[in-house]
Amino acid sequence: MSDDVSDDVSEGLSEVPALSDAQLVQAMAGGDRSALAELYDRHAARLLATARRFLGTTSAAEDLVHDVLLEAWRRAESFDPDRGNALTWLLVRLRSRALDRLRRRQRGYKALNSLGHTQTQDTAPDPLRRSEYAEVRRALRELPETHRQVVDLGYFAGLSMSEIAEELAIPLGTVKSRTAAALARLRDALKADRGGAR
C-alpha cells in the first residue's frame, strides 16, 4: 500500500512543469532566492565559458558571473520577456561588464606605463603634476618587490584580488595583506614627501 502511495506521489511530482527562465526572473523580482539558484544552475556553464573567452582566466570569469548574477537579482524587475529571453538578457549584461573590465584593465596598463614606470618628469603635463608623478614613482620604487607587484596588478593593470592571486600563484589572503601593507607604506611615504598631513 505504501509503495502505491509513494508511486502516486512520485508521478504527481514529475508532472509539475518546470518554470521557464522568464518565470524564474519574475520570481527573482519577487524575492525568490531559489529562482536565482535555478537560473544559475541552468546557465552557469554557458555564462562561465563566455566570461572566460572575454577575460582569459577562470577566476576572473567566476568573479564576473557572480557580479552579473547579483546585478540580475537586484534588477530582475527590469527584465522584459518581449525584448528577448532570460539567457540573452544575462549574456548582454555579462558582455557589457566584461568590456568594462577590459577597458579598466587597459587604462590601468596605460597608467602603469605613464605614471609609474616610463613617464619622465619632463613629459608630465604641468609642474604640479610632474611633482606628483615624481612622488608616486619614488614611493612605488621604495616598496618591496612583492608589494609593488600587487599594486601594479591591482591598481594599474586593473586585476581583481583573485586574478592577482592566480597571476602570482599565491593565496588570496596573501594578496589582501600585501595590498593593505603596500597602501599603508605608500600613504606614509607620500605624507613624508609632502611634509606631513596637509
Radius of gyration: 25 Å
Q: What's the number of structural domains?
A: 2
Q: Average pLDDT value? A: 79
Q: Tell me, what is the CATH class of the largest domain? A: Mainly Alpha
Shape call: elongated
Q: How would you characterize the largest beta sheet?
A: none
Class based on secondary structure composition and strand pairing: mainly alpha
**End-to-end CA span:** 84 Å
> Please, how many helices?
9
Tell me the CATH architecture of the largest domain: Orthogonal Bundle
Number of strands: 0
H-E string: HHHHHHHHH
Strand content: under 5%
Helix content: over 70%
What would the CATH topology of the largest domain be? Answer: Rna Polymerase Sigma Factor, Chain: A
What does this protein structure show overall?
The termini are far apart. The longest helix is centred in the middle third of the chain and has 33 residues, at 86-118. α2 (21-29) crosses α3, α4 (58-74) packs across α5 and α5 packs across α7 (145-156). By secondary structure, the chain is mostly helical. It has two domains: 19-104, RNA polymerase sigma factor, region 2, helix turn helix motif (Rna Polymerase Sigma Factor, Chain: A); 119-193, Arc Repressor Mutant, subunit A (Orthogonal Bundle). It has nine helices and no strands.
